């Protein structure tokens, strides 16, 4: 099988150029759609909240286009907005005083706590830093992700920070957040 067009990653400097080289709008829409799908699958573990939201936006765009609620031009415009979100993620993190790894933790905290912890962006950033600081001694140990005792301590430290902040443990949200934080730490702060 011969590949007619080599896929270009969204984060590549060549992505926009590759789109402009396509003559048909349907080809441009298809290329963006496939690139977004690929990005959301490949990068999902890095920031599940962010990439799930993009996946849902993409599904809505596809459904709206299929049902003739939007035309091709609008589909392309909306796909370009998603591409921009993906490409701009590091800048958003930097504007918040975070790096992309810390942004993933921030997003998880914000999504899980937004209804029960009345805080602004700055306070969520501070909470992110406090949790990272509380687990630093565990994540700095080689192969911590394979040591159940250290993982338990990470979850315990996360829960303690939430408790200290006076955040209500509604529906055992502490357990969910602690587990999500642990999984993100495995992706971003593992020692191999």
List the helices and strands and how they pair.
Elements lengths: L14 H7 L3 H18 L5 H19 L5 H24 L4 H14 L7 H19 L8 H17 L8 H16 L4
Helix pairs in contact: 2-3, 2-4, 3-4, 5-6, 5-8, 6-7, 7-8
Structural account:
The chain has helices at residues 15-21, 25-42, 48-66, 72-95, 100-113, 121-139, 148-164, 173-188. It has 192 residues and is mostly helical. It has 2 domains: 15-95, no CATH class; 100-188. The protein is elongated and about 55 Å long. The relative contact order is 0.10.
Short overview:
The protein has helices at 15-21, 25-42, 48-66, 72-95, 100-113, 121-139, 148-164, 173-188. The chain is mainly alpha-helical and 192 residues long.
Instruction: Give the low-pLDDT segments.
Output: none
Rounded radius of gyration (Å): 20 Å
Main sheet overview: none
The tally of helices reads: 8
Percent helix among the residues?
55-70%
Number of strands: 0
Q: How widely separated are the two ends?
A: 37 Å
Number of domains: 2
Structural class, by secondary structure, is mainly alpha
Say what oligomer this is.
single chain
The average pLDDT score comes to: 93
Strand content: under 5%
The coarse overall form would be elongated
Order of helices and strands: HHHHHHHH
Which short descriptors sum up this protein?
8 helices, 192 residues
């Amino acid at each position: 099988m011969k590949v007619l067009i080599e896929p270009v990653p969204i984060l590549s400097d060549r992505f926009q150029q590759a789109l402009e080289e396509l003559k048909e709008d349907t080809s441009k829409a298809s290329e963006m759609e496939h690139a977004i799908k690929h990005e959301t699958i490949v990068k999902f573990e890095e920031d599940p909240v962010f990439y799930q939201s993009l996946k849902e936006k993409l599904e809505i765009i596809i459904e709206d286009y299929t049902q003739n609620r939007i035309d091709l031009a609008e589909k392309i415009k909306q796909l370009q907005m998603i591409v921009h979100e993906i490409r701009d993620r590091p800048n958003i993190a930097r504007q918040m005083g975070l790096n992309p790894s810390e942004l993933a933790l921030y997003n998880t905290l914000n999504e899980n706590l937004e209804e029960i912890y009345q805080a602004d962006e700055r306070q969520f950033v501070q909470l992110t830093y406090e949790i990272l600081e509380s687990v630093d001694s565990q994540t700095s140990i080689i192969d911590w992700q394979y040591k159940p005792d250290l993982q338990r301590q990470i979850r315990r430290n996360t829960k303690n920070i939430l408790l200290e902040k006076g955040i209500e443990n509604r529906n055992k949200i502490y357990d969910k957040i602690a587990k999500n934080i642990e999984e993100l730490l495995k992706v971003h702060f593992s020692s191999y």
